[in-house]
Structure formats: structure tokens, C-alpha cells
Specification:
The structure is a homodimer of 285-residue chains. By secondary structure, chain A is α/β, with parallel strands linked by helices. The first copy, chain A, has helices spanning 7-19, 35-47, 75-84, 95-98, 116-120, 124-139, 151-163, 193-198, 200-216, 219-231; strands spanning 2-4, 24-29, 50-55, 89-91, 106-108, 143-147, 169-173, 237-245, 258-266, 271-279. Chain A is globular and about 55 Å long. At the A-B interface, α1, β5, α6 and α7 of A face α1, β5, α6 and α7 of B.
Chain lengths: 285, 285
């Protein structure tokens, strides 16, 4: 596995690969890799000649008071895991490499960014679009891989790639879970042992909400079930619990074809998110 | 010369060329071609395997009350001229092809867009960055060619390409002028015969301002000369006359290395712009 730190080196390598007609699969991450990231890398390996993974804790997508400084990092362990998962090139630039200029040019997502995580993290998705535009241009992938766990990010990126004609395909990869159902996340290490025991209740609550939604077809009823269940998790505060159309993230309507049931829950040292997608085609009339 | 109307066809053709290792030179235009555009195409032909020109009157960069509907168009004449200038592929999509969705995602330039033309055309450069991002992704050029005449556009694009790591180089091409000095522009056809006779005075005024600037080193003195001279053009109203640092478009300082002297003048049926760049290196202490 090749390791690259410099933006100019990354651009030169991907430019050469592209001109040789090699297909590049790209997996952007913030590191502290877990099975979720590795499943993206393995998926990329199946479909492409070369797999590039980036590890970059992107300051532009953290707000003031958020956990940029304390976000977990372990580059040497990550490099070992990435290599085992079939990554060919690991791109791990510094913030100074990625943002040498304090650019005033911003990319603003629309209403898709005003709900769910976006409501409590103003500017977060601006930062996501900024770094992904740069990373897509630097790695020139044919396909880029994103986990369904960050469903709002995925929805916004799919829209961005479509509306701005990026020459690549976005691949949705299912959320990888612990055996007890907890979605894998780099932030899980910050749970206390007691919280770790309670955390699978997030996914259980989403499943209860999804079941009620499938049975009743009534999003309000389903939301009530979800919120009540989340409210019973000891030591956890519900940040949001929503049912929306996916990927538009607008309110559900009669023409909605897919719904997302999503929640964010705050524990003492970690805010966890999870979601379930529900296919509505043929289900509602 | 190949003509392409569909976005998907354009993406497929440029993708194939890129994977064959062919270098693409790209010349974005709004059509109604004149010698200025053709000089861009010829320049592109010297340095690249394939020259792609786009002709697209971009609604996103026209404000309400601006001349989108009346902007001059003549595709068949343009196609002939483009072919003679060495264009290999002419991409001329419809607005519906380019904007099938009413995208909410916007790219906002910073303070560079608040001066000169940007001050009186709010949102104009948002639209320019939107369409160029799409066109760059669709044509995948190694080099893109812009005329120095639209100096603010060029400055913003250079900054955007640098800050967002677009895998291409921006080439500045000098303004092409009529024999009497008037900068070539698609909008020149809208001048009355009397106005056409007066119009070269814009460039003459810029030259007077530049001369005063070089001699005195005093931007205020130069600006006074420029404004006074523009004020004497019969039937013309000065929209702006400015001297700024280039390409930042901030006020001049002791460390400025290049200056732009720029003006916009409104005639009865056309608003014309022009500019002169002044190299300051070694000139100021």
C-alpha cells in the first residue's frame, strides 16, 4: 500500500491512473477505522482497478465547541487495517495541505441540510461538500463509497454529484453493526461501559418505529413509538427523531417512494446517530 | 467537428478521451462568437490533443431584468466559425439539459465577487461558478481558456480552481480588440452607429488611467484621470471605474504585485466592460 500526504502527489498519481484508463474506487474517511469503513474498502476493491482511501479529520465540518480536537485518531493502526482491506493508496493529508488558503468560496447545500443532524450542526454540510469536492478532484474516482449510516450526508452527496455532474457514481453501502445491533462508529469508543450496554436500544427503537410505520402507514404513529422508546434509554437524551422522505429529506407525501427513520442520541461523551430506510413503493396508496 | 447536445453524451465522450490519455483543451462560451473566442480556441489547439468548445447562454448567471432573452444567438454561424478555428467538439446543450433539476445547492464566491461587475450583478458569479463546475466535470479538460477581458470572472475562476483542486489549468488569453481599440464583445452589435464611434474611448480612458498610474504610482490620481475621461464619452454612463489588486480584487497595498484598472460603461442598448492589467513588481517600494 502506497501512502501519500501531499496534495500535489495525490493529484499526480490519480491523473496518471486516469490517463492509463484505470478505474479508481474512492473511500473518504475521517480515520479511526472500523468494520464499516473496511466494508466500503472491500466493496470498492470488487469493482475497481485501484482503491484509494482518504483519512482526513476535516476541520471545515466541525463547528465551534464540537469534537474536532478530541476526534479519535490512530493513523498507524488505520494504515494496517486499510492495507488488509485491500486499499492500494492511503491519502492522509494535513489540514495545512488541504487548506493552505483561507478560501472564501463556499458550497451551500439547500434545505436537505436544514433537518436531522444539519439542524443542530449549522455549516456542517458546507464543510462536507467543500472537502469532498476537493477530494473528488484530487482522486478522480469512477466510484465513491459511502455508508448508509451517515444517511443525510449520503443524500446530500448524491444530490450534489447529480446536480453538478461529477464524473463518478456514488455507491450506498449498508450500515455495519455490532452483534447486538449498535451501528459501528468511531465515536463508540467514548461510551462508558453502562452506556455501551444501553446503546443498542437506539437501533431497537428505530426498528420498533419502522415496524409501526409498515403496519399502520402512519408516520405520526410511528414517530410516537420511536420517540417513546428512545425516551426510555437511561442516560441518553434524544437530539432528534424524524421520519422523512429519502433522499430529498422533505416531509413524506403520497408520492414518496422511500422513507428514512432517523435518530440522534446524546450520551455523556458521544452523540450517536442511526437510521433505517423503508421502501414505500407499492405500500401506500 | 462533432456536435453534442446531451449531457450524457458529452460525459461519455470526454470520459473516453480521458481514459485514452488524450489531453482536452476547453473553451467555455455563450456563443455569438467573435475573434476573442476564436483566439481562445486556437490557443487551445496548440496545447491539447482535442479542443472542446461549449456554447451555452447560462440562465443562472443572468439576473432578473438582465438580457438573457435578448442575448445574441446564432448557432449555425458559430458552428462554422468554431470548426474553422480548430474546435473538434462543439457542446451546445439546452437549459433543460443543463438544469433538469432546480438545484438548491449553490456555490458562493467570496468578496472577490462583491466589487466591479459583481456589485451591480448580485448572484452573477454564483451562476458562473455553477455552470463552470458542471462544464468542467462534463468535459474533463486538462486546460481551460478564458479571456482577460472578463477579468473578474477570470480572477474568481483561478481562485476557485486553486481552492477546490480542480484537476486542470486555467489559461489567461489577452483581450482581442478591434483596430480602433474597442474590446471585442458579443454585445458590441447592440451599439448604435454613433455609440460604436464613441466606444473606443473606454479603452483610451483606461490607457490614460494606466499611464497616470505608472507615472505617479498614485491610484487615486489615476482613478481621477480615468473617471474624468470616461465622463466625457457622449451617451455613455460610467457604471464603475476602479483600480484594485489583481487577482484578489482587494484594495491595493504596498505588497500588491499586479493591479487591474477596470471600467464598465452603459450605452443605450449595451453595457460594455474593459480593463488593463498593470504589473507592479519592482515598480513600487
Amino acid at each position: 500500500m502506497k501512502r501519500i500526504e501531499k496534495v500535489t502527489d495525490m493529484a499526480a498519481v490519480s491523473g496518471r491512473l486516469a490517463s492509463e484508463g484505470k478505474s479508481i474506487g474512492f473511500v473518504p474517511t475521517m480515520g479511526y477505522l472500523h468494520e464499516g469503513h473496511l466494508s466500503l474498502a472491500r466493496e470498492a476493491g470488487k469493482e475497481n482497478d485501484v482503491v484509494i482511501m482518504s483519512i482526513f479529520v476535516n476541520p471545515a465540518q466541525f463547528g465551534p465547541g464540537e469534537d474536532f480536537d478530541s476526534y479519535p485518531r490512530d493513523l498507524e493502526r488505520d494504515a494496517e487495517l486499510a492495507e488488509k482491506a485491500g486499499v492500494d493508496i492511503l491519502f492522509h493529508p494535513t489540514p495545512e495541505e488541504m487548506y493552505p488558503e483561507n478560501s472564501e468560496i463556499r458550497i451551500l447545500p439547500g434545505r436537505q441540510a436544514d433537518v436531522l443532524c444539519g439542524a443542530s450542526r449549522p455549516g456542517h454540510f458546507d464543510g462536507v461538500l467543500k472537502v469532498l469536492t476537493k477530494l473528488f478532484h484530487l482522486t478522480m474516482p469512477e466510484r465513491a463509497y459511502f455508508g448508509q449510516k451517515d444517511a443525510q450526508q449520503l443524500a446530500i452527496i448524491e444530490t450534489f454529484v447529480r446536480d453538478y455532474n461529477f464524473p463518478l457514481e456514488i455507491r450506498r453501502v449498508p450500515t455495519v453493526r455490532e452483534e447486538d445491533g449498535l451501528a459501528k462508529s468511531s465515536r463508540n469508543v467514548r461510551l462508558t461501559p453502562e452506556e455501551r450496554e444501553q446503546a443498542p436500544a437506539i437501533y431497537e427503537s428505530l426498528q420498533q418505529g419502522a415496524r409501526m410505520f409498515r403496519e399502520s402507514g402512519d408516520p405520526d404513529l410511528a414517530l410516537g413509538t420511536l420517540r417513546k422508546s428512545l425516551g426510555h434509554i437511561p442516560g441518553a437524551e434524544t437530539d432528534y427523531a424524524e421520519i422523512l422522505e429519502y433522499p430529498s429529506l422533505r416531509p413524506l407525501s403520497a408520492s414518496s417512494r422511500e422513507a428514512i427513520i432517523a435518530a440522534a442520541v446524546q450520551f455523556s461523551g458521544a452523540r450517536l446517530i442511526d437510521n433505517i430506510l423503508v421502501n414505500l413503493e407499492g405500500k401506500r396508496s
